[in-house]
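tokens incoming
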């Protein structure tokens, strides 16, 4: 008989970081989705962990040319930074996709994040 044990936020975060190191986007996204709105946990909200992980996820999604797979998380509760916006816009340029560029800009404005000058 197999027992299921609920994972803590910190355990999920460790699994997520492991999947990111292994460049395993599908499993990293699964862990990220399991964290969901728990990003607001007091311990995590006081650290840079959520922002750093989102930046790594965005980088991996862009590197694998799978930004659309990460888009719904970006629109939801994922903390967005100028670094992430810069990464996303870089992918838009690589794809030469003006519509996606506009979506990224709207997302950034909607979350109150500026578009970096270098972008």
């Amino acid at each position: 008989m197999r027992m299921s044990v609920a994972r803590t936020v910190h355990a999920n975060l460790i699994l997520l970081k492991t999947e990111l190191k292994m460049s395993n986007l599908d499993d990293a996204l699964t862990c990220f989705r399991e964290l969901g709105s728990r990003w607001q946990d007091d311990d995590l909200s006081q650290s840079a962990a959520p922002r750093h992980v989102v930046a790594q996820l965005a980088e991996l999604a862009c590197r694998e040319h799978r930004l659309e797979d990460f888009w719904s998380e970006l629109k939801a509760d994922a903390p967005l930074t100028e670094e992430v916006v810069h990464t996303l816009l870089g992918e838009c340029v690589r794809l030469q996709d003006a519509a996606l560029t506009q979506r990224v800009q709207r997302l950034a404005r909607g979350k109150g994040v500026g578009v970096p000058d270098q972008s």
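note: The mean pLDDT is 84.
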